[in-house]
From TrEMBL:
GO terms for cellular component: mitochondrial small ribosomal subunit. One of its GO terms (molecular function) is structural constituent of ribosome. This is 28S ribosomal protein S14, mitochondrial. The lineage of its organism: Eukaryota, Metazoa, Ecdysozoa, Arthropoda, Hexapoda. Gene3D superfamilies: 1.10.287.1480. It comes from Papilio xuthus (Asian swallowtail butterfly).
Length: 87
């Protein structure tokens, strides 16, 4: 939904922030921006684990939470991941 409304939201936000335009037009732009649904706001998009939908501790490369990522890495289910060994 955010991608669908991106161009229109950008245009209205530019009108809201423009100091050259009259105050009446900026106020109309403020009213127009409030007509959008809350899910159209890009800030509401957050990363979630694709397996558990956990919102915190996401490993971006795999789009999994750190807990699931570590569990799969322990059992060699992720390609290119190797346990650290020392000593």
């Amino acid at each position: 939904m955010s991608a669908e409304n991106f161009l229109e939201r950008t245009r209205i936000n530019a009108m809201r922030r423009n100091d050259v335009l009259p105050v009446e037009i900026r106020e109309l732009a403020d009213k127009d921006i409030n007509k959008f649904e809350m899910n159209a706001i890009p800030l509401r998009i957050n990363n979630r684990c694709v397996i558990t939908s956990r919102p915190r501790g996401i490993v971006p490369e795999w789009r999994m939470s750190r807990i699931v990522w570590r569990h799969l890495a322990d059992y060699n289910k992720l390609s290119g991941v190797q346990r650290a060994m020392w000593g």
